[in-house]
Design a protein that fits this description.
With 420 residues, the protein is mostly helical. It has 19 helices and 2 strands.
Length: 420
């Protein structure tokens, strides 16, 4: 397909929503993404706002396109497998525990609905992508500022709500959730800077704020993920630049932000003094709960043996309740809590998503810039899943919905020879 001209770029990237009869749906969608930072309760405002958005959306003409069906089918299989695994709960399980297990699978269903809604929304009109990403970024910036200030005397009164064991967690249950939550807005803002989108000083400020919050989360997975994702975004930006001038601009921007980031890190250490250096040293070293008998990896191996013996699974967290084994691995959790059907469906979903995003990155389209941010972050979460349970991470479901919205729209666009 021929390269689209700038007029078509602006039309697809900035055009208003198709919901002309219900203009406030854009605000609703924006608020859904802003509320993503609040992941302290089950259910959270993120999934509670979606039923309202679904009603408004479908009344306004939102349609389920066939390009989204693979995602829908795979996640329906995962949820069905989770409910099926509940039949394997032992007779020793109390009614209260059985109810909590049922509730946990239902939360997965709600999050699946959120992810599907975002995919259908973006697939129906790529103009929604800008609204969705804007909400995500502003929500991340807000909670980052609040968290940073809570670490100072300015908002010391709420420090206990936003920090856990000296690590920033925002309004998440754990710093290891908060850190990865910031990866997509960080990469998206960096991509906009490198591609000359938006107001540069504002984007630069957002980038530094989110970077600082990610740093004080002290999440090793987020740190490693950020380093790899930023490198990939920079590589994609330079490799896909169509002019020498663009490549020079990107090089200067990268050099500038690299210098600023180093100075920011030094400032963090000086500001935190001993506690900061101790925290950094502690987090980059291998923890006692990672290795040795009874460590994380030993538990994962033992859990794998149990998983191979139960194709239908044991029921949600039933194995952990009975054996006190917590593998901190989403793949083993799917196998033991949801069953093999869920595990294989999830793996197929991951593979299809990676292939779909990679295909988009190879094409020169307006939505490629967002795909260049989504792709590395999605890859990072695939790897993070080896050491963390993320089956209830709100931002992962949002990430998946955004990814499939772009993938589905791209398929629609090219299947109709550029006419949607």
């Amino acid at each position: 397909m021929a390269i689209m001209d700038s007029a078509l770029h602006n039309q697809l990237h900035y055009r208003a929503s198709q919901f002309t009869i219900l203009p406030f749906v854009n605000l609703c969608n924006w608020l859904i993404m802003v509320s993503l930072f609040f992941a302290f309760t089950d259910p959270s405002p993120f999934e509670l706002l979606v039923p309202l958005a679904l009603v408004i959306g479908f009344l306004g003409g939102l349609k389920l396109h066939p390009e989204v069906m693979p995602m829908l089918v795979l996640w329906l299989l995962i949820c069905f497998s989770g409910y099926l695994a509940l039949t394997q709960l032992g007779f020793a399980s109390t009614f209260d525990y059985t109810y909590k297990a049922f509730e946990a699978i239902t939360i997965t269903v709600l999050l699946t609905a959120v992810s599907l809604y975002l995919a259908v929304l973006i697939c129906s009109d790529i103009g929604h992508l800008r609204i969705v990403m804007s909400g995500y970024v502003y929500g991340a910036v807000f909670i980052s500022i609040l968290t940073i200030l809570a670490g100072t005397p300015i908002l010391a009164a709420i420090r206990d709500y936003l920090y856990l064991y000296g690590r920033a967690r925002g309004f998440s249950e754990d710093p290891n959730i908060f850190g990865p939550y910031l990866l997509l807005p960080l990469c998206y803002v960096l991509g906009r800077i490198l591609n000359g989108r938006g107001f540069l000083p504002l984007n630069a400020m957002f980038f530094l704020i989110i970077s600082y919050a990610l740093l004080v989360s002290a999440s090793r997975a987020a740190w490693a993920g950020a380093a790899c994702c930023i490198a990939m975004v920079i590589f994609f930006s330079i490799a896909n630049s169509s002019s020498l001038r663009g490549r020079i601009f990107r090089f200067v921007a990268i050099a500038s932000f690299g210098s600023i980031s180093v100075l920011g890190l030094i400032g963090f250490v000086i500001f935190s003094q001993t506690s900061g250096t101790d925290l950094l040293a502690d987090r980059v070293s291998l923890q006692s709960y990672d290795t040795g008998q009874g460590g994380r990896f030993d538990i994962q191996f033992t859990t794998l043996i149990y998983a191979l013996q139960a194709p239908l699974g044991y029921g949600y967290l039933e194995l952990s309740r009975v054996t006190n084994l917590d593998p901190h691995n989403v793949y083993l959790k799917l196998a033991t809590s949801y069953g093999w059907i869920a595990l294989f469906s999830y793996i197929i979903f991951l593979i299809m998503t990676v292939i779909g995003l990679w295909t988009i990155i190879q094409r020169q389209t307006p939505w490629r810039e967002v795909a260049q941010a989504v792709f590395p972050v999605f890859l990072a979460h695939i790897i993070i899943g080896v050491v963390v349970d993320l089956d209830h991470w709100r931002h992962f479901f949002a990430l998946s919905g955004i990814a499939w919205g772009i993938i589905a729209f791209d398929k629609r666009f090219h299947s109709k020879s550029g006419a949607i």
